[in-house]
From TrEMBL, chain A:
Top-level taxon in the UniProt lineage: Bacteria
Keywords, sorted A to Z: Cell membrane, Membrane, Transmembrane, Transmembrane helix, Transport
Similarity-based family: Belongs to the binding-protein-dependent transport system permease family.
Membrane association type: Multi-pass membrane protein
PANTHER family assigned to the protein according to its UniProt record, in alphabetical order: ABC TRANSPORTER PERMEASE PROTEIN MG189-RELATED, ABC TRANSPORTER PERMEASE PROTEIN MG189-RELATED-RELATED
Bilayer-crossing regions: 27-49, 87-111, 123-147, 153-173, 203-224, 254-277
Protein name (database record): Carbohydrate ABC transporter permease
CDD domains recorded: TM_PBP2 (cd06261)
ABC transmembrane type-1 domain: residues covered: 88-278
InterPro entries: MetI-like (IPR000515), MetI-like_sf (IPR035906)
Keyword Membrane carried by entry: yes
Compartmental location: Cell membrane
TrEMBL record, chain B:
Lineage: Bacteria, Bacillati, Bacillota, Bacilli, Lactobacillales
Residues annotated as transmembrane: 7-31, 72-93, 105-125, 158-178, 199-223, 265-286
Subcellular location: Cell membrane
InterPro entries: ABC_transporter_permease, MetI-like, MetI-like_sf
PANTHER family associated with the record: ABC TRANSPORTER PERMEASE PROTEIN, ABC TRANSPORTER PERMEASE PROTEIN YESP-RELATED
PROSITE patterns in UniProt: ABC_TM1 (PS50928)
Family membership noted in the UniProt record: Belongs to the binding-protein-dependent transport system permease family.
Keyword Membrane part of the UniProt annotation: yes
Name this polypeptide is given: Carbohydrate ABC transporter permease
Amino acid sequence: MDISKVPENTRKKKSRSIKQGRKWSKIISYLLLIILSVVFLFPFLWLVFTAVKPEREVLTFPPRMFPSVWKWSNYPEVFKLIDFGQYYLNSIFVSLIGVFGTVLSSTLVAFGFARLKGAGHGIWFALLLATMMLPSQVTMIPVYLIYSKLKLVNTFVPLTLGAFFGSAYYIFLQRQFFLTIPKSLEESARLDGANTFQIFAKIMLPLSVPSVITVALLTFMGFWNDFMNPLIYLNDQSKYTLALGIMQLQGSHVVAWGPLMAASVMVIVPVIITFFVGQKYFIQGIATTGSKE
Amino acid sequence: MSRKRTTLLFYLFISPWLLGFFIFTAGPMIYSLFISLTDFSGIGSAKFVGLANYAKMFTGDPLFWKSLWNTFVYTIFGVPLGLIAGYLLALLLNTKVKGLGVWRTIFYLPSLVPAVASSLLWLLIFQPDFGVANAILRWANLPTSNWLLSEAMSKPTLIIMSLWGAGGGMIIYLAGLQDVPTSLYEAAELDGAGPLRKFFTITIPMTSNVIFFNLIMGLIGSFQVFTQAYVVSNGKGGPNNSTLFYVLYLYSNAFSYFKMGYASALAWILFLIILVVTVIQFKFFGNKVYYGDSTN
């Protein structure tokens, strides 16, 4: 329809009704966003306020959102009930080693797949992608038996060694990033006499800081949140990581809800800090794996 | 660089993964297949029993079927609901709202909470006697529930819990939605297409690659659900085995009953199920997915 032929007054009326419609849909959007935000935030608020509630108030019905007295001592109580400081150190140690190993191996392997089209390239890349589909349970038992034979159960080795051999998901993510770096940079470096390893270390890596940070952050979360591997491999309480350690507060008879929630807050806080520090990288990285296959 | 040299360097660079593939994936897979044909407690020697573990699974173990059923129910409801919730959130955020970063963070953060911590939190919220879920229902004059302590409600409750993490998918959808060229919508508007029509003929097809990715990863993840069920049932899969999911049952067989052979057989059946389900998805949807113009 040629808009110039529409009489002036109908055109105005129409644009006003469109504007009105837009305005209403805006209001509905914000209303929905506010309601949904309350729903999504509510569990967090419940967690934070329960963490400072006296036990008696946790157990009354109907429960109240805010405590009558703020029982901050639930936090130090956690350290008395379980060896929380030790679990914290263990989690930090395991996560940092895991991040280091993953970043090191994933960048090397990703460079190989992104830039070196050697014989067999296609087959190995297909295999790499295929391993993403393999449920870890298939290899879990034999790998456990091997570590058990090597007397490495109840150490941090089974939790961290695998990281040094790369993880398909992070290799893929890193490769996608390497592919976006123009090849002309390497070509001119090669003319200046740089070898392949120098190109990797001096050109590709420095240009990949965003994706390396993404991989580091995601790996950190993965190790910090991991429950199944510590559950399988760690027997001594002194070796427990946080995920495993806080389960002790959920004893078989009595649950100390206040301290349990205080402990949960302390487990979640590093994750939230990590997210806010690297928010930009996070969202980019996750979106990349999903949309660019 | 010569072809030979490139090949050499290629293998040098991928050697960490290549080694890992043989040590942690291919080798153990073969070992696992062998163990699945034996009666083995993890120590001492394995006794070869042929296909007895597989036969027992299908003919003499009601818990195998129970755990398979539980996982099936959790997946068939949880995955589509999670996909729809994540997609709707992304659509809502893609309407040029102000403060996008803040809303996005609010919806995304829950998906980052460690599964152990979030499960413990929900366990408190869903306590029948003093949990806030029942308090809200009572306040609204609705019937209350025993939630995780009820055989009928335990799985729906776990699905509700999983929806708190729908923001993970949302981030991926949002990126997909932002890649849809606005010119398509403008052209459709000129042709007189309404909002619903635009949604079904442009938005959905143009984001089909991210929907497909989330569907595949969602199903694979859902089949392996473990931590939530372990935490809320204290590792037992109760009440009355209603949260005994497949991997929890596998774990119990391997590390509580030390039936490594049987657990390995369970793992292989899980692998086959995931393989078949994934292949079916590629068969049915693979050719309908739009991957954009990129050639990577």
